[in-house]
Design a protein that fits this description.
Cytochrome p450, about 55% helix, about 475 residues, five-stranded mixed β-sheet, three-stranded antiparallel β-sheet
Length: about 475
Amino acid sequence: MMNTFLTFSLFLLPIFFLLFRRRRSAKRLPPGSLGIPLVGQSLSLLRAMKANTAESWFEERVKKYGPISKLSLFGKPTVFICGQAANKFIFTNDGGKLSNQQTMSIRRVLGDRNILELSGEDHKRVRNALVSFLKPDCLKMYVTKMEQEVRRHIKMNWEGKQKVTVLPLMKTLSFDMICSLLFGIKHGARRDKLVEYFQQIIEGVWSIPVNLPFTRFNRSLKASAKVQEMLKELLREKRIELLKGAPSHQDLISCLLSICGEDNKELLSDEEIIHNVLLIMVAGHDTSSILITFLVRLLASNPTVYETVLKEQEEIAKGKRLGERLTWEDLVKMKYTWTVAMETLRVTPPVFGGFRKTKQDVEYGGYLIPKDWQIFWVAAMTHMDSSIFQDPTNFDPTRFEDQSSIPPYSFIAFGAGIRKCPGYEFAKFETLVTIHCLVTQFTWELCCKDNRFSRDPMPVPTQGLPIQLTPKRIAVA
């Protein structure tokens, strides 16, 4: 009888332990609700972003649940975390506890071999390959080409116009810059077709991943497949050019094809190059164009900042002979202009937030985040934190005169640590060159008194920011 009882007890003990552990784990999940299966809080968040109330939407969650809470976004159970410590947790855990997996919509549309998806050694390998072209020492050779692209754009779209709408024009300029300098795609039918498909890709990057014919997600997937076929053809052409002696640093794709590993084979697969090209198209197109658009808006509404930027840019222009182009040394002198850009990114970060995925059960802030759940962070939660940035609603570029004074993992417009955007310097160069050309050739006034903007998912000013243009008497050739 005793043996039977002992055997029965030993049999029940593991079951009791597992049940107790599950109940204990359930109690330790962050507060909040997962909502309706698949949809969860996705539609509510997307509506808030569209109305530019997403920051308030998350602030209400913090008031209700604290800085850690669970919800469901884009088909996955998710934990929202915020604050400087949360940012550090996100950007210092790579490949161990967390993977950099994005939402299903991003992953399906842009591919799963881009650096947003990769972790550990794969991320390091691909990122180092991208940085080999995007680092300042390499990009400084392309400042003149950047200016030529900007001047060409202004001549075609700004000169002779009394009124222009800034955001669509800046998106066109950013896409042209990416195509010319990074991918070596010349103006013409191929680029025009690429633009058409690209707009459809953008629409579905943040969407509920329901693959039905009438959905954004479905249209975006089809456009992505067509662009990937175009890029495969481009890779074949670039390989032929390299075999014929073309320079390996003529554009980013040629550079990536030229980098070899220890076995003398190409370091990156075609799939990795194509997926990262797609990512750079989306990230570079939206972030740079939005930053420049909001700088144009700021310069029209803040006379003090405008006068200081203008003075800095005119001093540089005065030092150039007629027709002489900008150099990297000129960009180095644009210190105040870049602090204005950084403050603009603090107040209106183009990237609202991002996702990570747990690779194992993770404990954070006293709660359990189960394996395979998403973690979502929001840049604005530290950018507008008064304990980090004094009087955060006040626009003050001097905050960035000494960037070492800003606490680590507080300003994350470009990410942080090993996850800092590899295209940071490219965006900086593009922004400074564009602002220089605009402020030395035009003055402008806002046509729309409504100063609000929405997010879709990037910030979009009312009506795309129409402005009234006045050319200066002497335009730079």
